[in-house]
């Protein structure tokens, strides 16, 4: 029997898809490369943004009549919408990844469940037994990786925040951190399998351990202490959760196995809007964290997220977001328009005309692009140590130690380390050529000014 997995959303969701593929393969199923020949299609959903939700619902309608298992965040937060769209589907909660085999077999047998399956069993758990079951650990499980050199390891699920615009809390619930020994076992297995990158991921990696008496910095130290030639990328972290152990975290980022890359969403440059969003920090708190990193890790790449058009955002508030972009010189900026998500308090607020939100998004992106182009151009002519980790169109893509993306017009094995010279820069990436003369040369570091 052949199963195709169609996955959407964040790296944590793609990690779940890899685990489901591994469990299905372990049970004797063949994982299909395309949906047309599959006996069952698994749709692993995301519910963060309205456009993604609409895309998934269109996809489900297209697949109506096929054997379907629907899982992921929409299976938790919008179960009724899924049941109405594809009533024949088996709906598997995202916290029941290990039940995928039972869910697929239920579809093949021609019956539908909306509930939990236990690993190794085909029967659906009763409501009482499902309620009493322990939250699953999505680590140290079989997995079929989409990319053979990247091991995506989920370290916790849920979050500590209560943002007024976010539906993820409805899907994932409160923070549940995984034991460090289970995480380390997963990382070791990836290293043994030849992985060169470890992505530590969750809905908020910065909150890791705060419910079990530890923190992200302690976990990073343990991961980096493992034997092997690999790099570690820490996933998205919110400012308020890392502030209490900031010195410890900055020190952990100085380890040579760490990608010098920090993804920390700010969402707005106005304290008033941040308060309305329920973000739990101020702009100055955010800037203080950036300053601490740049003092100790001068060339760190800072990635952030903005939401444009939040209902209470005035033009003055938006100008403060533009000022923040100018001051912080972010390496990466992800811009989203505000979307009213179901059952969130922000959804009840009066909203802007869509043209206002679109115009603000465009202005912010264009400002960042100009600044990023300037900053990346400083790297042209430098020698960099590059880890090749992705196939690109007409070439191969690698990462610098600061997680800058570098494209090469050549074909080389993924997982290779090369010395290269940067010959061109855009706002989004760098273009490189292999520089044999640079063999063994240290990477050139370009520092951005410390914020004051």
Could you characterize the architecture of this molecule?
The protein has 452 residues and is α/β, with parallel strands linked by helices. It has three domains: 131 residues, Rossmann fold; 228 residues, tm_1862 like domain (pyruvate-formate lyase- activating enzyme, Alpha-Beta Horseshoe), CATH 3.80.30; 56 residues, OB fold (Dihydrolipoamide Acetyltransferase, E2P), CATH 2.40.50. The chain is 34% helix and 20% strand. The strands form five sheets. The protein has a five-stranded parallel β-sheet with strand order 2-1-3-4-5, sandwiched between helices. Helix 9 runs parallel beside helix 11, helix 11 runs parallel beside helix 13 and helix 14 packs parallel to helix 15. The radius of gyration is 22 Å and the shape is globular. The termini are far apart.
Which CATH-level-2 architecture of the largest domain? Alpha-Beta Horseshoe
Form type = globular
CATH superfamily of the largest domain: tm_1862 like domain
What is the CA-atom radius of gyration, in angstroms?
Answer: 22 Å
Strand-pairing-aware structural class: alpha/beta
Low-confidence stretches: 118-133, 437-452
Number of strands: 18
Q: Helical proportion?
A: 25-40%
State which percent range the strand residues make up.
Answer: 15-25%
Biggest beta-sheet profile: 5 strands, parallel
Number of domains: 3
Number of helices in the DSSP assignment: 15
Mean pLDDT: 91
Lateral arrangement of strands in the main beta sheet: 2-1-3-4-5
Concise summary:
The chain is an alpha/beta fold. The protein contains 15 helices and 18 strands.
